[in-house]
Amino acid sequence: MFVIVSNSKVLIKIKEENNLKLIIILLIFSNFLFSKSIIEEKWPRGESLITFLNKQNISKDIYFNLSKTDKELCSEIQSGVKYKIAKTNGKIENIMIPISQEMQIHIYENNSSYKLELIPIIFTEIEETLVISIKKSPYEDIISTSKNYKLAHEFVRNFKKAFNFRTLQPNDKIAIRYKQKIRLGKYHGTPDIIATTVQGKYKKIYIYRNPADERYYDNKGKSLTSVFFKVPVTYTRISSKFTYKRFHPIKKRYIAHLGVDYAAPTGRKIRATAPGKITFKGRKGGYGNTILIQHKGGYK
After folding, report:
1. CA–CA gap between residue 261 and residue 90 (Å, rounded)
2. Does the pLDDT of residue 8 top 70, yes or no?
3. Which of 80, 88, 117, 199 has the fewest Cβ atoms within 10 Å of its own Cβ atom?
4. What tens digit of pLDDT does each residue of 230-256 get?
5. Topology of 237-298 in CATH?
6. Which CATH number is correct for 36-120, 3.30.70.240, 3.40.190.150, 3.10.450.350, 2.30.30.30?
7. Can you tell me whether residue 260 is helix, strand or coil?
């Protein structure tokens, strides 16, 4: 016997009548027996992970059994973020909910129950230079040239105080060197601007980021970064960076490190990053010896 399947049409030549009926039934109903679907939705405003689990008929214990740090991370789901649900025959198999550019909540079926874990988001990273000629405004021209809305937003946010965009004239040039994450063929997360040059008719401005302190400077060495990014100590090295995906060598899973650790000699002075009032001094949970400073604008 032989079977040819093409464009949902089946041509069957077979002698045995029973086998013929069996093959036809299998071909017709195979898609229904193994129906899979992936649904992409936007996270509703005001939704919490617990209310979401209730709606999906998944036990809330997978949340309550998490560590305190993981619970805090699960509370960082932002409204409007796109998440995915994979189903087979209408039953949920996997749920992926991003909580940052690097990490996501993974809920999956395991032996007729569900488990929750925090796993990295897989992406690639490119580094390239974008050169544009001013026609309307930097924001609009970056978008029209690259289709990268977040790059346009980051450029304006970082450099609006460095120079007056209104003084730019048609055909002035802007070059931007940046890194960008790519996931599933699309821009992912916030671009990382390394340097930029603005070339006008009579003036040229060069702005770069110093990797030693992660602050932006102009060509005269003047800092353009907010005072809240000032490093509080003269340090020898960063012993542990802020990250959502630090792999714990003992627990064998990803645990977030929600801070930056600066290694410095004992006795070195620690300075406030901005003027403020000390509201706490002592030991504070996992932070150890802690000083809490209240700044203007609600910052601590």
Report:
1. 47
2. no
3. 80
4. 678 877 777 777 776 666 666 666 777
5. Glucose Permease (Domain IIA) (2.70.70)
6. 3.10.450.350
7. coil
